[in-house]
Amino acid sequence: SNFSGCRYREPVYRTLRELAMSYFNIYFNLRGERTLRCYSQPVDLSRFDDRHWMTSERSIWFIAEYLCTIPHTPLLTPAQSR
């Protein structure tokens, strides 16, 4: 999202879908369009620790690229997203 308040949620959601939906109203792009359409299983970022991603001065686009390769579950039907 383009909103800095889109961070932590209390662990009160029964499913990943419920958790993802809790971000829907604050997940938007620079045009103000709500763009949250799908979610993935949780990713353990420690898989990237050997690349020192938390302290690197270099780009960490490899994390975003990885996130684009994993399966995602749609939140909306095609009709709902119009």
Structure description:
The protein contains two helices and two strands, in the order αβαβ. It has two domains: 39 residues, no CATH class; 32 residues, no CATH class. It is globular, with a radius of gyration of 15 Å. The chain has a two-stranded antiparallel ribbon with strand order 1-2. It is of the alpha+beta class and 82 residues long. The model has no long low-confidence stretch (mean pLDDT 87).
Q: Keywords for this structure?
A:
2 domains; globular; 18% helix; 82 residues; 2 strands; alpha+beta; two-stranded antiparallel ribbon
Spatial extent as radius of gyration: 15 Å
Report the β-strand fraction as a percent range.
Answer: 5-15%
Widest sheet: strand ordering: 1-2
Based on helices, strands and strand pairing, what is the structural class? Answer: alpha+beta
Low-pLDDT segments, ≥5 res: none
**How is the main sheet built?**
2 strands, antiparallel
The helix content, as a percent range, equals: 10-25%
The termini sit apart by 19 Å
Quantity of strands, as a count: 2
**Average residue-wise pLDDT:** 87
Shape label: globular
Tally of distinct domains: 2
Secondary structure elements and pairings:
Layout: H1 16-21, E1 38-40, H2 61-69, E2 72-74
Antiparallel strand pairs: 1-2
Q: Summary?
A:
It is built from two helices and two strands, in the order H-E-H-E. The chain has 82 residues and is of the alpha+beta class.
